[in-house]
Design brief:
This protein is mainly β and 558 residues long. The model is unreliable at 1-25, 30-42 and 174-181 (pLDDT under 50). The radius of gyration is 25 Å and the shape is globular. Strands 23, 28, 29, 31, 34, 35 and 37 form a 7-stranded antiparallel sheet that branches. The protein has a 6-stranded antiparallel sheet with strand order 26-27-30-36-32-33, with no helix packed on it. Helix content is 12%, strand content 36%.
């Protein structure tokens, strides 16, 4: 929400409505009203972020129950609880926010044993069917998202990942003083065998907890339905302990092996007409004390699929490598996050620049790769690039170059994830950047593909400059804009298309992680990203040339 513009408008309207009867005027009441309004806006933003985080947590809890995943630990934090699951995932549950109305979102168990989302006690219907919270046969399911409409102050809900929104009819600012503490009414950790979650509508969900007598079998990167082409083999890393015996059940025609912490799954060949096209691979595990656990991987055969670059450690498939200039060994995505947002050893070397590039490669998944371009005689981030980050900051007052890796939100990456990428770099027609190499995504295996979509969001440094300006740039006015430009290149290096996305403009500013369709670029080998706007301080584009992106989807075909 754009607090600066909202408050400035309020001040103007209150000032015009005030009748001055003397030269002396006490504006204490005015400023108290403004402060109270700003606090109210902050409370609503906090409630939206907390609710969306809780919805993601509830989805993981239900899926853990469905897939017989256990809880390894529950940690109390200042803002709520952090839940750790045996499959390596983590959920965050908020303490709740007082003073706000909110729709009651919950889940209910259906006759088929699956859980379904409800809104105020009634099933959420998508495409004529109840919206599943746990997925079928262990498949991944979308969690609904919420936001507050800035015009009518009503809660809105999305059931398709934020593409479309419908009103709930519930006012976020009720006059009756109602308050909803949280989607979760309570968490009981007193039982040695189970964690019990009580929802706001009274629904209870019990998830088994891991202990010394329980088998541990955490499969990395196997969340949701795993899509295979016919004959394709995929491997998964497993953290296993306390297992004395196990057996594997699988769909007909599939080959499944488990050896030394690695699961290998091979889909049936295309000409195997007797094979099952979908189903579950189930691992039946037994500990020495006789406790059992069943862990499932849902699989299917497809002719086209989307692979997602999430930047999350659990999805890291790439071969470990080293960045020699900073003596850093990279085994997971978070290893690529610099220890400082500005001037750190990974993005800036020893302070005098870098003669080797920072790079990453989503090998074995989307195959997308980024190598820091060499500009201004160095591979340092000051010349542009895409850095992996987990920094976030929703305070505009912190929006300066020392917070250049922060996304402007209170929850981190898209859908509350931890990691994302931060773009920096631009080239304009000022004459000062003519030789600049723009940061790009390319396919490391050399095979052109369609990049279906990407999620983008403000950088805190950029947001503060757009709203408030800084020493290098004036604020962006009502007719101004800041946009991202994506340019695609085919396998021969020829330009295949160009798309624009406005972060700020006359039609409004984005307020949350937002999906950007890149499929119109066509089949590409590389996509370059540039930033542009109407701000020019005499030396070209003067706004901070940053934006955050996450969850990049790539189309794969047989």
């Amino acid at each position: 929400m754009n607090r600066r513009f909202l408050l400035s408008g309020l001040i103007a309207s209150m000032a015009l409505s005030t009748t001055f009867t003397s030269c002396e005027y006490n504006d204490d009441d005015l400023w108290e009203s403004i402060v109270n309004l700003q606090d109210r806006i902050g409370t609503l933003e906090e409630k939206v972020n907390a609710t969306n985080s809780d919805l993601q947590a509830l989805k993981l809890i239900v899926q853990a129950l469905q897939n017989q995943v256990t809880i390894t630990s529950v940690n109390r934090t200042e803002s709520g609880y952090e839940i750790h699951f045996s499959d390596g995932q983590t959920a965050t549950i908020s303490n709740g926010v007082n003073g706000t109305n909110a729709p009651i979102i919950s889940v209910t168990k259906g006759d088929d044993g699956l859980y379904y989302w409800t809104l105020d006690g009634k099933p959420m219907i998508v495409d004529g069917k109840p919206m599943c919270a746990s997925g079928k046969d262990g498949t991944d399911a979308l969690a609904p998202q919420v936001r507050i409409n800035p015009d009518n102050k009503e809660w809105e809900i999305s059931t398709d990942g934020g593409n479309t929104w419908i009103t709930t009819g519930v006012k976020a600012e009720g006059s009756d003083g109602m308050s909803e503490e949280s989607i979760f009414a309570g968490i009981n950790t007193s039982d040695d065998d189970y964690i019990t979650f009580t929802l706001a509508d009274g629904t209870e969900i019990k998830v088994a907890r891991f202990n010394a007598a329980t088998p541990l079998f955490a499969i990395a990167g196997a969340n949701g339905t795993q899509s295979f082409f016919a004959g394709e083999t995929r491997t998964y890393t497993v953290e296993a302990s306390n297992i004395s015996d196990y057996s594997i059940a699988k769909p007909d025609g599939w080959i499944v092996r488990y050896t030394d912490g690695i699961i290998s799954i091979t889909a049936p060949e295309k000409d195997n007409v007797y094979a099952e096209k979908q189903g579950s691979v189930a691992f039946n595990l037994v500990s020495a004390s006789g406790k059992s656990l069943i862990t499932k991987i849902s699989v299917e055969i497809v002719t086209e699929k989307l692979r997602i670059l999430t930047f999350e450690d659990i999805d890291a498939r790439f071969t470990p490598y080293s960045l020699g200039y900073c003596d850093k060994h990279i085994t997971k995505w978070s290893d690529l996050i610099d220890s400082s947002q500005y001037g750190g050893p990974m993005l800036y070397g020893g302070g005098m620049g870098m003669d080797e590039p920072y790079y990453w490669y989503d090998e074995g998944n989307t195959e997308l790769k980024h190598t820091m371009p060499g500009n201004w005689g160095s591979y340092s981030y000051w010349g542009g690039g895409h850095a992996i980050s987990n920094y976030y900051d929703a305070e505009l007052s912190n929006g300066d170059f020392t917070h250049q890796l922060s996304v402007y939100c209170a929850t981190g990456g898209h859908n509350g994830s931890k990691n994302f990428a931060m773009h920096y770099g631009y080239r304009d027609d000022s004459g000062f950047t003519d030789s600049t190499i723009l940061p790009a995504l390319e396919f490391g295996d050399g095979k052109p593909r369609v990049i279906d979509h990407i999620y983008v969001m403000w950088n805190t440094y950029l947001a503060n400059s757009v709203f408030n300006g800084n020493s290098l740039s004036e604020p962006v006015g009502p007719d101004g804009y800041v946009k991202i430009i994506a340019t695609g290149y085919d396998g021969s290096g020829n330009k295949s298309g160009e798309l624009e996305y406005f972060l700020a403009g006359p039609d409004g500013n984005i307020k949350e992680w937002t999906k950007w369709d890149l499929s119109l670029l066509g089949t590409v080998s590389k996509v370059e990203f540039n930033m542009s706007g109407n701000s020019d301080n005499g030396y070209g584009f003067s706004q901070p040339a940053y934006f955050a992106y996450d969850d990049v989807a790539v189309r794969f075909t047989e």
